[in-house]
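Task: fold both queries, return tokens.
Query 1:
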Amino acid sequence: MENNDEHIFYNLIILSILTIVAIIFTEVLNNVKVIYYYSVILGIVYIFNLKLRKN
């Protein structure tokens, strides 16, 4: 159980950092590409988490 809680904790940290970065990039560039790249990164993180759960 502790290992799973650690994964959730790290995921929250990663998501919060990515959200802050995405907000900064959106403010600076104000571009649709930012949303596209952000969704791609979220997809990669999601797939990575699925692989971690299987192991």
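Query 1 returned. Query 2:
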Amino acid sequence: MVYRSNISISGRFNPLRWEELKIPAEKILWTEATLLFHISDNLKGVNEDIYVNWNGTNVIFNPQPAGESAMKDALSAGISFSAEDVTKEHSFNMQFPVNGSEQLMFSASARENRIQMKSEWPDPSFTGIKLPDVRQVSDSGFTAQWKFLNRAVPMIWKDYVYDLSAASFGADLIIPVDGYDKTERSIKYALLCIVLTFAAFFLIESIYKKPLHLVQYGLAGLALVLFYTLLLSISEYLGFNTAYFIAGIATISLVTWFVGSIMKSPKLGVFISFVLTVVYGYIFSIIQLRDYALLMGSIGLFAALGIIMYFSRKLQW
């Protein structure tokens, strides 16, 4: 998934406490001061020149000269600076478009960082060192706000290169689960479906004293397995939800007829139909979920175990 974003950055530098560097003032080349700005992925997503407005003056960013390693692969802008400017506050702002894919992250390298993100993409996954303080996600998009105080990086230093990307956060723009992904997820529950169905068969055998042959178990299991072949093939034409409904109806009808015939009891066939409907409906609901799939799965299994224990409590093994 690729995107195009419009980035707007503004900030300010407080008066520099350069005396903390313990360097004689006459040895500091103030006129050679530069502003560095880093975009990952070797600037592949930048198709235009980037300018920064430094104290009201527009300055263009250029690739950092070879040999300078204050920030690897950064852009560099020469700024107007003098010894008298050290005691002043300096402001800057910049706007530029950037293309990317799947993820947009920001490195919080300032002392105080405030980041706002807005997008029409409805499926973000927030990631990084900090989750948003405020976020709203809907079908029409999302907004997110972060406030982060970076205490790991000093405001002024020398003879050391800090990893300014360590304090990064942002959003992954994930693609919603499509038909093939949903089919793959449903296959992971195939064993669960077969086990629960066979458990229903076993209860029928034990309660009604109507044994099933091993071959009959195998044929019923084969029908349950073919459900996924039907699901995959139909979903290529009609979509996952419709395919799931059609494959489910076909499989449930076949197994219901089969059990009712061999048991010579339409009532037991209806019981198996009910069990399969509940199982397939339960699996379908789990597949649709992303954040609560594990929770729903655990609750469903616990409930299924409780039901089996209830109906088998009076059996004489």
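Both queries returned. Flag for query 2: The longest strand covers residues 2-13.
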